[in-house]
Specification:
- By secondary structure, this protein is mainly alpha-helical.
- The chain folds into 2 domains: 3-69; 82-149, no CATH class.
- The protein contains 9 helices and no strands.
- The N and C termini lie far apart (40 Å).
Length: 150
């Protein structure tokens, strides 16, 4: 796990434990120990997890759903958060690409119609969310050239 992700996870754990301590009348160490036994924490500590970038409210919502045994709600929260990240990266990459190529929104929409640009980002989300902007722009440029020149 990168230093940045480690710090992010530690802050999220600390925030969640602090909130749980107040909510349940526990000391923070006891609250952290209790939280560390949950599936929500297990997911948070997963290196591929995006939860470390979420607010403590999202993590706490998942924790409360888990404590209530409401796994359907827990899964919905996870799915919703992943959808948010895909949408975020689609907008982010589209804006970077538009700026790099001095494209208007209308020009970008035409490019998307011809190449399925945004769909490709959604499909490529897993590697893209771990890749820097410069590499993603190169990949998207190659993708568009391949589609448009075919």
């Amino acid at each position: 796990m990168s230093d940045k992700n480690t710090l992010c996870v530690e802050l999220t754990l600390t925030n969640a434990a602090s909130h749980l301590a107040k909510e349940r009348g526990l000391d923070e160490t006891e609250a952290l120990r209790e939280f560390m036994k949950t599936k929500t924490c297990e997911v948070l500590l997963n290196i591929d997890s995006l939860l470390c970038h979420e607010s403590k409210e999202c993590v706490l919502d998942m924790y409360h759903a888990e404590m209530a045994g409401d796994w359907e709600r827990w899964e919905r929260i996870m799915a919703f958060e992943n959808m948010n990240y895909v949408l975020f990266i689609q907008v982010h990459i589209a804006n970077l690409y538009r700026r790099q190529h001095n494209m208007s929104l209308a020009e970008f929409n035409e490019l998307d119609k011809k190449t399925n640009f945004l769909d490709f980002i959604a499909i490529s989300y897993e590697p893209f969310h771990l890749t820097g902007d410069e590499c993603i722009l190169i990949e998207m440029g190659n993708y568009c050239k391949e589609i448009l020149c075919a």
